[in-house]
Amino acid sequence: MAQTRHPARRRAAACLSGAVPPPALCGFLLLLMVVFAASYAVGTNLGPVAPGMHGAGTTQDGSGSGHGGGMDMGGMDTDHGGGR
Q1: CA dihedral for 66, 68, 72, 76, sign (positive or negative)
Q2: HEC readout, the chain
Q3: What tens digit of pLDDT does each residue of 20-49 get?
Q4: pTM, to two decimals
Q5: CA Rg, the chain, in Å?
Q6: Alpha-carbon distance 60 to 65, whole Å?
Q7: Interatomic CA distance for residues 78 and 76, integer angstroms
Q8: Which among 27, 48, 53, 82 is least buried, having the fewest CB atoms inside 10 angstroms?
């Protein structure tokens, strides 16, 4: 009894097997997502790095009337007139 061949099915199976990423890549991406989620959760629970550190443009009570968005130059002289 002769076996019937189905070349179209084999081509489709080969095409689909090439479209699926390798399991090692899927595992690595899953591990990466877990590590980032854990680090985000730890960072959220611990709070800011430095005391008194807040996001730009907000105050401690959460209102949006903070100190603008400019950088504090810390008393640096910005007059570069050349009158030395």
Answers
A1: negative
A2: CCCCCCHHHHHHHHHHHHHCCCHHHHHHHHHHHHHHHHHHHHHHHHCCCCCCCCCCCCCCCCCCCCCCCCCCCCCCCCCCCCCC
A3: 889 999 999 999 999 999 999 999 998 877
A4: 0.41
A5: 30
A6: 10
A7: 6
A8: 82
